[in-house]
Design brief:
- This protein is an alpha+beta fold and 65 residues long.
- It has 2 helices and 3 strands; from the N terminus they run ααβββ.
């Protein structure tokens, strides 16, 4: 079983959501070079982790709305 990637999480969404999420990812990763992102498939979110702790930036999207 392969690990879920951030791209796997993003892939399920509309083109406009993908574009927005990718802009946010780029902004966060450029703003804090020490940060890394991690796919959290159980929550269906992308988490960002920092060496001194977690930075919680999460996007929740419901397909039923």
């Amino acid at each position: 079983m392969k690990d879920t990637t951030t791209n796997d999480i993003i892939e399920e969404h509309t083109p406009s959501v993908k574009k927005l999420v990718n802009k946010l990812r780029k902004f966060i990763l450029n703003a804090v070079p020490e940060i890394y992102e991690k796919a959290l498939p159980g929550w269906h979110v992308i988490g960002f982790r920092y060496t001194d702790g977690d930075i919680s930036v999460q996007y929740f999207h419901s397909k039923t709305r």
